[in-house]
Design a protein that fits this description.
Layout (H helix, E strand, L loop, with lengths): L13 E2 L7 E4 L4 E3 L13 H17 L4 E6 L8 H7 L13 H4 L11 E8 L23 H18 L4 E4 L7 H8 L3 E2 L5 E2 L7 E8 L27 H5 L17 H7 L6 H6 L9 H4 L25 H5 L3 H7 L10 H19 L8
Antiparallel strand pairs: 1-2, 2-3, 3-6, 4-5, 5-9, 6-9, 7-8
Helix pairs in contact: 1-4
Bound molecules: cobalamin and iron/sulfur cluster (SF4) (2 copies).
The site of cobalamin has 39 residues, from helix 2, helix 5, strand 9 and helix 7.
Length: about 375
């Protein structure tokens, strides 16, 4: 079923000159550096060369501050078919972009003409407090510092330079393109997918963001295909565990491991700009942007290690409460979120979220809702 013939006419065209310095953004959102000679990489097909190149690019990624990096073939894998099922069952909610370029999302070869391999990278955003517990603030951890898209992209460009030097071409993606990043990362061996649908790295837990680049170079796979039909195996910790299902304040996680985006609070607080249904306002509580609940309760995250460096600093929300955030005006919001991914939302949306969380905090503090000692 996955051996369908690659239809070259479906390879997305490039929209030119969008970001300068020889870089372009293709119409599906990958950033691409194009080799003007039009040649494709054909020379590194020997096992030794494949291995050496994979080693070199992974090494460069680690040197640049990524916490892990791994390669796999650019090809569809069985798990990707769940995307179609997910959309058919209405779990994509109002995320229209998830229904676009479905063919590309389910076949990474369509991202770049002649694509042979993918290099996936992981960067941890975990911070531990002095007691060794993850810092939990009023903004979800992945967004509480600098915008991870720019942090990762900048370094991926540097990794990609290595691919160009080896005579190849690449496209990079960080959340921006129709790529099933978790599934490909699992295939490359960066971790396993949990019931909460997140990729859990053996050392870093699920507190990571992902990115990668697809290239026409042949890179030796970092991990052998595992599981029935080469399907990346599920996280063993999920056997007999349903903590994320029970802890989710919105009932968004099904036991089979599919997350309903139309219920997830991350969707409502980040992606939904307009009015929200009453139940959403009553469900948001601790975090005004995103939600970390299904990661906080996950036993596979116990002992997760923070990443290297302070790439995500500064953290403008540290020590603040939703009540305090609800008092911010538009100017303060703009000043404090200058390099943060929270700039994806408008002040009005931030304020709506903060008011709902502040209400929840006040309700919790009011003597009527306090439990007797
Ligand atoms: C759309 C999207 C969302 C949506 C939908 C979430 C979702 N689970 O699909 C919303 C807005 C809700 C969201 C929220 C969050 N997101 Co998001 N999101 C994405 C995005 C753009 C696409 C994900 C996707 O392809 N979904 C489609 C589904 C079908 O794919 P899937 O989740 O891989 O599906 C697997 C399982 O759900 C399961 N499954 C799905 N359907 C079915 C059906 C059946 C019957 C069965 C058995 C299984 C099953 O099998 C699939 C294959 O393993 C990716 C970036 C990217 N391009 O990959 C980031 C990404 C997944 N998000 C990320 C993050 C950090 C988050 C949040 C933690 C942010 C936050 N703190 O608020 C939350 C976590 C919520 C959650 N538990 O998923 C990271 C995850 C890193 C990691 N460790 O895995 C990513 C990879 C971004 C990045 N570049 O780092 N996100
Ligand atoms: S909380 Fe339990 S079921 Fe959910 S992802 Fe973690 S280990 Fe799996
Ligand atoms: S991010 Fe929050 S709302 Fe979304 S699935 Fe996880 S616990 Fe549920």
């Amino acid at each position: 079923m996955y051996e369908r013939v690659l239809d070259r006419t479906r390879v997305p065209a490039f929209r030119r000159g969008s970001i300068g310095c020889g870089a372009e953004i293709c119409e599906v959102g990958c950033e691409v550096r194009v080799d003007r000679s039009g040649k494709t990489a054909e020379s590194n097909t020997g096992a030794g060369a494949r291995e050496e190149l994979a080693r070199l690019l992974r090494h460069r990624a680690l040197e640049l501050g990524f916490d892990d990096a791994a390669c796999c073939a650019a090809e569809p894998v069985p798990e990707m078919s769940r995307l179609a099922e997910w959309i058919r069952s209405g779990r994509s909610g109002a995320l229209a972009y998830m229904r676009d370029h479905l063919d590309v999302r389910m076949d990474p070869r369509l991202l770049l003409p002649g694509a042979r391999s993918v290099l996936m990278v992981a960067k941890s955003y975990l911070r531990l407090d002095p007691g060794g517990n993850p810092v939990a603030g009023p903004v979800s951890s992945h967004a509480s510092g600098r915008d991870y898209h720019s942090v990762l992209k900048k370094r991926l460009w540097e990794v990609g330079r290595g691919a160009i030097e080896a005579g190849g071409r690449f496209k990079l993606f960080v959340d921006s393109a129709p790529v099933m990043e978790k599934v490909i990362a699992a295939r490359a061996g960066l971790g396993r997918i949990g019931r909460n649908s997140l990729l859990v790295h053996p050392r870093l837990g699920s507190w990571i963001v992902l990115g990668g680049l697809v290239t026409d170079l042949e890179l030796e796979a970092s991990a052998p295909p595992v599981g029935e039909g080469g399907e990346p195996p599920r996280l063993p910790d999920c056997d007999g565990c349903r903590r994320c299902v029970d802890a989710c304040p919105a009932g968004a996680i099904a036991l089979d491991g599919a997350v309903d985006a139309g219920r997830c609070l991350s969707y409502w607080t980040i992606e939904c700009a307009g009015e929200w249904p009453e139940w959403v306002g009553c469900s948001v509580a601790e975090q005004v942007y995103g939600c970390d609940r299904c990661q906080q309760v996950c036993p596979a995250n116990r002992g997760a290690l923070p990443g290297r460096g302070d790439d995500f600093a500064p953290f403008p929300f540290d020590g603040l409460t939703p009540v305090e955030l609800a008092e911010w005006d538009a100017t303060r919001f703009r000043n404090r979120t200058r390099r943060s991914s929270m700039r994806r939302i408008r002040f009005e949306q931030f304020h709506r979220n903060a008011l709902a969380c502040a209400d929840a905090e006040r309700r919790l503090r009011s003597p009527a809702t306090k439990r007797p000692e």
